[in-house]
Automatic annotation (TrEMBL):
<dbReference type="InterPro" id="IPR003593">
    <property type="entry name" value="AAA+_ATPase"/>
</dbReference>
<dbReference type="InterPro" id="IPR027417">
    <property type="entry name" value="P-loop_NTPase"/>
</dbReference>
<dbReference type="InterPro" id="IPR004390">
    <property type="entry name" value="SR_rcpt_FtsY"/>
</dbReference>
<feature type="binding site">
    <location>
        <begin position="295"/>
        <end position="299"/>
    </location>
    <ligand>
        <name>GTP</name>
    </ligand>
</feature>
<dbReference type="InterPro" id="IPR013822">
    <property type="entry name" value="Signal_recog_particl_SRP54_hlx"/>
</dbReference>
<keyword id="KW-0342">GTP-binding</keyword>
<feature type="domain" description="SRP54-type proteins GTP-binding">
    <location>
        <begin position="380"/>
        <end position="393"/>
    </location>
</feature>
<feature type="binding site">
    <location>
        <begin position="359"/>
        <end position="362"/>
    </location>
    <ligand>
        <name>GTP</name>
    </ligand>
</feature>
<comment type="subunit">
    <text>Part of the signal recognition particle protein translocation system, which is composed of SRP and FtsY. SRP is a ribonucleoprotein composed of Ffh and a 4.5S RNA molecule.</text>
</comment>
<keyword id="KW-0472">Membrane</keyword>
<protein>
    <recommendedName>
        <fullName>Signal recognition particle receptor FtsY</fullName>
        <ecNumber>3.6.5.4</ecNumber>
    </recommendedName>
</protein>
<comment type="function">
    <text>Involved in targeting and insertion of nascent membrane proteins into the cytoplasmic membrane. Acts as a receptor for the complex formed by the signal recognition particle (SRP) and the ribosome-nascent chain (RNC). Interaction with SRP-RNC leads to the transfer of the RNC complex to the Sec translocase for insertion into the membrane, the hydrolysis of GTP by both Ffh and FtsY, and the dissociation of the SRP-FtsY complex into the individual components.</text>
</comment>
<feature type="compositionally biased region" description="Low complexity">
    <location>
        <begin position="46"/>
        <end position="55"/>
    </location>
</feature>
<feature type="binding site">
    <location>
        <begin position="214"/>
        <end position="221"/>
    </location>
    <ligand>
        <name>GTP</name>
    </ligand>
</feature>
<dbReference type="Pfam" id="PF00448">
    <property type="entry name" value="SRP54"/>
</dbReference>
<keyword id="KW-0547">Nucleotide-binding</keyword>
<comment type="similarity">
    <text>Belongs to the GTP-binding SRP family. FtsY subfamily.</text>
</comment>
Length: 407
């Protein structure tokens, strides 16, 4: 008999025994006497110490500990292995289930990303399809490729870089046919934007203070709501600082969101942004909160007094916690295209950015701007947004992005 058959037979024996255990009382199962009065059902981590009459409940949803110390002296070796096997199977199933859920969630995101990038892909894709349709690779083709990349908002520097890289790939691999350029372009683009892929690790500080900045309407407040949900999903506790004291609706927006999701929001009537952030950090310390997400009012880089004001918010945060802020995120609206590069530079000069969030990729054909950002200065692109839904913001992954952009 093969090992496989052996395992199946043993499992079948165990399975029918488990079925019996679930449906009959344990007293009968282990050969003991039927009790006069009902006893609580055994659970895997207590093991059968005696008879019971209540059927065992449905499998638990969290990993189960193997019985320890060893089950009661009266339990036979066979019973011990029966319960150990039960525990093993329950644990295995939960692990498999968790993997399935993670895989399904990844597939949903890849679908959303693809749908979100449809506008950019339709434009870029159609033009590239015409270019890569067939024929020889020649100078005319490179020129046309240059135009296509520029119109997808990649910017001059990134376009020059990509063309140089594509040419190298063509000559190294001895490519001749235009259809082979697609792979070369995907490779060059992935390599260019890969340095932006550095997921945010909220570890090492408690609270971990994340300050959020950006121009008006970029999606700061909405992104904070989405991020709070994202971090809650990772088992972290979150507190929000309604530091956008300029736009009253921003505070209400944040408070409504906090109420719905059971997240504390620190806000003040009037008051200044720095004071709200200061209070929020102290409240988070007192409550043992893991993450503080601090909103700020929208401002243009040309409004110098407002750029000074946001630098002050950063300094005041450092007064509440000398190690903070631990992350300074700039939220960019993808619709702004190449303009985003100036915003990155100005906010980086004022605050020293540690990460970027690119929102509204779903509403624009300017998704190529990521290449321009990567070429200018590879500040990690922590998250990208492809919709208004709460789950429409996720960590940036270069390969997924390029796959969704160039089919
Ligand atoms: N389609 C789409 N809309 C988004 C996305 N992110 C944010 N929005 C929308 O953009 C609009 C502005 O978002 P807010 O979060 O209010 O922007 P803000 O930066 O806080 O605005 P100010 O406080 O005025 O500076 C809202 O209608 C959001 O729903 C996204 O990824 N896709």
């Amino acid at each position: 008999m093969s090992d496989n058959q052996n395992t199946q037979n043993t499992s079948a024996g165990w399975g029918s025994k488990l079925w019996k255990a679930l449906n009959t009382d344990i007293g009968e199962l282990v050969g003991g006497e039927k009790p006069a009065t009902p006893q609580p059902a055994p659970t895997p981590d207590t093991a059968p110490a005696g008879p019971a009459t209540t059927p065992v409940a449905a499998p638990v949803a969290a990993p189960v500990a193997v019985p320890s110390p060893a089950p009661a002296a009266s339990t036979s070796t066979e019973d011990k292995s029966f319960w150990q096997k039960t525990v093993e199977v329950l644990n295995t199933d939960v692990t498999v289930l968790a993997k399935d859920v993670a895989q399904a969630s990844r597939e949903v995101w890849q679908y959303k990303l693809k749908a979100g990038l449809a506008k950019t892909r339709d434009k870029l894709g159609k033009e590239l399809a015409a270019l890569f349709g067939g024929g020889q690779i020649d100078e005319d083709l490179y020129e046309e490729l240059e135009t296509v990349l520029l119109t997808a908002d990649m910017g001059v520097d990134a376009t020059v870089h990509l063309l140089k890289d594509v040419r190298q790939r063509v000559s190294l691999a001895g490519l001749k046919d235009a259809s082979e350029l697609r792979g070369a372009l995907k490779g060059a683009l992935t390599d260019l934007i890969a340095p932006l892929e550095k997921p945010l690790q909220v570890e090492g500080h408690k609270p971990y203070i994340i300050m959020v900045a950006g121009v008006n309407g970029a999606g700061k407040t909405t992104s904070i709501g989405k991020l709070a949900k994202y971090f809650q999903g990772q088992g972290k506790s979150v507190l929000l600082a309604a530091g956008d004291t300029f736009r009253a609706a921003a505070r209400e927006q944040l408070m409504a969101w906090g109420e719905r999701n059971n997240v504390t929001v620190i806000a003040q009537d009037g008051g200044d942004s720095a004071a709200v952030c200061f209070d929020a950090i102290n409240a988070a310390k007192a409550r043992g909160i893991d993450i503080v997400l601090a909103d700020t009012a929208g401002r243009l880089p040309t409004q110098l007094h407002l750029m000074d004001e946001i630098a002050k918010v950063k300094r005041v945060i450092a007064k509440a916690d000398p190690s903070g802020p631990h992350e300074i995120l700039l939220v960019l609206d993808a619709n702004t295209g190449q303009n985003a590069l100036q915003q990155v530079k100005a906010f980086d000069d004022a605050l020293g950015l540690t990460g970027l969030v690119l929102t509204k990729l779903d509403g624009t054909a300017k998704g190529g701007v990521i290449a321009g950002i990567a070429k200018q200065k590879a500040i990690p692109l922590r998250f990208i947004g492809v919709g208004e839904g709460i789950d429409d913001l996720r960590p940036f992954e270069a390969k997924d992005y390029v796959d969704a952009l160039i089919e």
